[in-house]
Specification:
Helix content: under 10%
Oligomer: single chain
Radius of gyration: 17 Å
Low-confidence stretches: none
CATH architecture of the largest domain: Beta Barrel
Strand order of the largest sheet: 5-4-1-2-3-8
Strand content: 35-45%
Number of domains: 2
Shape: globular
Largest sheet: 6 strands, antiparallel
Order of helices and strands: HEEEHEEEEEEEEEEEEEH
Length: 253
């Protein structure tokens, strides 16, 4: 019997809102941490502002103060429920709840938001400390951006898999930042998507030069997608899993 692929339940649809008014959509995923489960998504999703110039993303000019996370229902695969997570501790002084990278800060377009609304929720996290099989991944190898372009799903609230290719050397950092480039036709709404190297099984080349045989799917978390290098290009920006792990590890109870 055909089964739902695990990454299809790990990507979560997000709706950024201001006092209930919809502003934009995006994607996120859950990571475990020493301080409880975290929502990992792009910084520009929670600020509601472009990373490059700080201008509001929404045509309304508004910026969000809450995010609706469409969480998986406990013991009911294929069902989802809306959970509203505030973005600020106190809206009056705008003390933010999300946590930024301990070194890069606002330069890094990804954040962690502690999850508090988990009643009746089933979590299917991506653990950056255990990103998956140590497959050989290099230029031109295929990867998938798993999220919600334009807020669209592939049925129910299962995400769309947009597949492209590694477009830069994985061991080299782009622009002096922990960024991997990919060539993929991805669009708004996919911001915050996990990017995976996913193989359905069979013979898989490993990073140590060996070849391993798998009877089922294997994957490796490459990082988090945060947009294209510019509006005219399909070259996308992926913040590396190693940098996400640095953020997660910085959050202590």
């Amino acid at each position: 019997m055909q089964k739902i692929a695990m990454p299809s339940v790990q990507s979560l649809l997000l709706e950024m809102r201001y006092n209930g008014q919809p502003l934009s959509t995006g994607t996120g995923f859950v990571s475990p941490s020493a301080n409880g489960p975290l929502l990992i998504t792009n910084r520009h999703n929670v600020t509601g502002r472009r990373q490059d110039n700080g201008k509001p993303i929404s045509a309304t000019g508004g910026v969000p103060n809450e995010v609706v996370v469409h969480q998986n229902c406990k013991a009911r695969l294929g069902s989802w429920q809306k959970k509203i997570e505030p973005l600020y501790l106190d809206p009056e002084d705008e003390e933010r709840r999300w946590v930024e990278h301990p070194v890069l800060g606002s330069k890094a377009d990804f954040v962690a938001l502690p999850l508090t609304q988990l009643d009746g929720v089933e979590l299917y996290p991506h653990d950056p400390a255990k990103p998956g099989e140590n497959m050989l991944i290099g230029p031109a190898d295929s990867v998938s951006v798993i999220g919600f372009p334009f807020g669209l799903s592939a049925g129910g609230l299962f995400p769309v898999w947009a597949t492209g290719f590694i477009a830069s050397e994985p061991i080299v950092d782009f622009d002096g930042l922990p960024i991997q480039l990919i060539d993929c036709r991805s669009r708004q709404g996919q911001s915050g998507s996990p990017v995976l190297a996913y193989r359905s099984g069979g013979m898989v080349a490993m990073a140590d030069g060996s070849v391993a045989a798998y009877t089922g799917p294997v994957s490796r978390l490459i990082g988090i997608y945060s947009g294209r290098v510019n509006a005219e290009s399909d070259i996308g920006i992926v913040w590396k899993t190693s940098a996400i792990l640095e953020l997660v590890d910085s959050i202590k109870s």
